[in-house]
Design a protein that fits this description.
By secondary structure, the chain is of the alpha/beta class. The chain has 15 helices and 16 strands. Bound molecules: GDP-alpha-D-glucose. GDP-alpha-D-glucose binds next to helix 1, helix 11 and helix 12.
Length: 457
């Protein structure tokens, strides 16, 4: 690969040892080949500044930009998480349109572009992460940057008709086509992206999958993100998960782990579990749900509402079904070390992953990697999660249909060992083969194979 790698992501680990799937992948890529990682400093700046601050890192260069408190409200909580996030997750009803959101988003992108442009040479590869930076490449091109620039979108590509709700709908395709490579999670995302460009009079599709839009030619492809499967399996093998949560011998653990987000389908999941309890015969093995849901984006009103809704459903189900010495749902709003999650996954009979919409969903893959192949648990997975495109041997459910989820939980609890092993073996092969290292090298190979070429005239 020629040129240096420059990664831009909103989140950047400020400590030397990174954790979390994406952060580990970026760290490994940069440790292998050197380069620079640019991300937002967790502390606000008193006023906007073009200077980047160096962060401690070994083997590569890590730099942070700061946003002001006002920009955190407009760029991050506002445009990124109250406009683009609901748009891409098919919740246009939750889009909050405030006049200063787009202004803040564009201002931060323009500033980060100036910072990146100062560092990037024409041979470098610029790898931009996620919806916080849709307009970054367009800003870089305006500054005369001809380097190869790729975007990887971690969340679903928006449905073309939903884009009508975006005030910047006309600019959106131009933001995208300023990239050389648009990496999406699934084939379904690629289809949605092509549908958008097909509807534009100034776009043309080529047989090799490239798209010409105005003067720009770019590629669109799926790169399903993976996990550090070996690492998860090793952490899970420590075992002792049942003891950790003091399960009674007649209890089967059902586990859910999600950021507390309205896209994750948590209300229907808890209701479906309540329905299962209605059908559980006295004296039978009892399912016990541990739902870990660390709060996120708590300053956004839609997140405050989902939190209140979940509190109410969990206490209603528990109030109805709890007994002396038994609480069926343990609903927890804090986060745990990855090692703890790994042991809980392995102890669980069922992993519940039922988002209404999700780019991929790493928890589904982590649950599979953590299982004991000789006695594996069952993955219940939304058809609407990106992960379902390739994890076909999970029990696939419609996350809008609580009866369907309840039936899958019951089927999972009753599933014979041989069927569990067969399904798990197929899922495991997929998760280990397409792990996070494969994702990174596939993407970077595709980006670096694009010829360095200025716009078609
Ligand atoms: C976005 C897209 C896409 C959760 N609670 C704890 C904890 N986690 C970890 C999980 C998992 C990660 O956070 C969450 O990843 P997901 O993929 O499930 O979801 P998003 O955060 O929405 O991620 C998604 C992803 O980007 C990558 O492209 O798959 O579709 O929405 O790794 O295990 N980790 C720890 N403690 C917790 O309590 N340590």
């Amino acid at each position: 690969m020629t040129g240096r790698l420059i990664v831009v992501s909103n989140r950047i680990p400020t400590d030397e040892v990174p954790s979390g799937g994406l952060v580990v992948a970026m760290h490994e890529a940069l440790s292998d080949q050197g380069g620079t990682w640019i991300g937002a400093h967790p502390d606000p700046a008193s006023e906007p500044t073009d200077a980047l601050e160096r962060l401690p890192a070994q083997g590569y260069d890590k730099r942070a930009f700061r946003v002001t408190e006002e920009e955190r409200q407009t760029y991050y909580l506002g445009y990124a998480n109250s406009v683009l996030w609901p748009l891409c997750h098919r919740r246009v009803d939750l889009i909050a349109l405030e006049s200063d959101y787009a202004e803040g988003y564009l201002a931060v992108n323009a500033r980060v572009a100036r910072q990146v442009a100062r560092l990037a040479g024409p041979e470098d590869l610029i790898w931009v992460q996620d919806y916080h930076f849709f307009p970054l490449a367009a800003e870089l091109r305006r500054l005369g940057c001809h380097a190869r620039i790729g975007l990887f979108l971690h969340i679903p590509f928006p449905v073309a008709s939903d884009l009508a709700a975006l005030p910047e709908r006309d600019a959106f395709p131009h933001w995208l086509s300023a990239y050389d490579l648009l990496g999406l999670q699934t084939q379904a995302d690629v289809a949605r992206c092509l549908e958008l460009f097909r509807s534009l009079p100034d776009a043309e599709m080529f047989i090799d999958g490239k798209v010409k839009h105005g003067p720009r030619l770019f590629a669109v492809a799926a790169f399903p993100i993976g996990i550090d499967a070996e690492g998860m399996a090793a952490a899970a093998r420590v075992g002792g998960g049942r003891e950790m949560v003091k399960l009674a011998p007649d209890e089967d653990l059902v586990i859910g782990v999600d950021r507390l987000d309205y896209s994750k389908g948590l209300p229907n999941r808890l209701r479906a579990f309540g329905q299962v309890l209605e059908h559980t015969e006295l004296g039978a093995r009892r399912p016990h749900l541990i739902q870990i849901a660390p709060a996120s984006r708590g300053d956004v009103p839609a997140y405050q509402r989902i939190r209140a809704e979940l509190d109410a459903i969990a206490s209603e189900v528990n109030g109805r079904h709890a007994d002396l010495g038994w609480t069926p749902i343990q609903y927890i709003n804090r986060s745990y070390p990855r090692e703890t999650l790994a042991r809980l996954f392995r102890a669980a009979r069922i992993g519940l992953v039922t988002p209404l919409a999700d780019g991929m969903n790493l928890v589904a893959k982590e649950f599979v990697a953590a299982q004991d192949p000789a006695d594996p648990g069952v993955l219940v997975l939304s058809r609407t999660a990106g992960a379902a495109e390739r994890l076909r041997e999970a029990l696939l459910v419609n996350p809008f249909d609580t009866d369907d989820i309840a039936r899958a939980i019951e089927a999972g609890l009753a599933m014979p060992l041989e069927e569990r092993k067969a399904r798990h073996a197929a899922l495991r092969a997929e998760v280990f083969e397409r792990d996070i290292a494969a994702w990174r090298s596939d993407y970077l190979r595709a980006l670096s194979s694009i010829a360095v070429a200025p716009a078609l005239g």
